[in-house]
Description:
Elements: H1 2-25, E1 34-35, E2 45-46, H2 51-61, H3 63-81, H4 85-94
Antiparallel strand pairs: 1-2
Amino acid sequence: xxxxxxxxxxxxxxxxxxxxxxxxxxxxxxxxxxxxxxxxxxxxxxxxxxxxxxxxxxxxxxxxxxxxxxxxxxxxxxxxxxxxxxxxxxxxxxxxxxxxx
Length: 101
């Protein structure tokens, strides 16, 4: 029984160090935010903080989904309009920004 406890403790030590290393390298805007494992096709995130922190957390925690969606939009746009994504990016860059109200 004692050897099993010691083995569990030895197995847990690297996990603690890994979590501490991750916490040390995580951006400060992530405080209190987390992502749960996918459940029934849904991705759950908990966001917490100022509007700036909420936006940062949303983008940081959902980056893979945002990247996938961008790839889908680029492919569908190219298929539907017969124009490459660079065309739309260049057109947006050439369009003057409207004055803010």
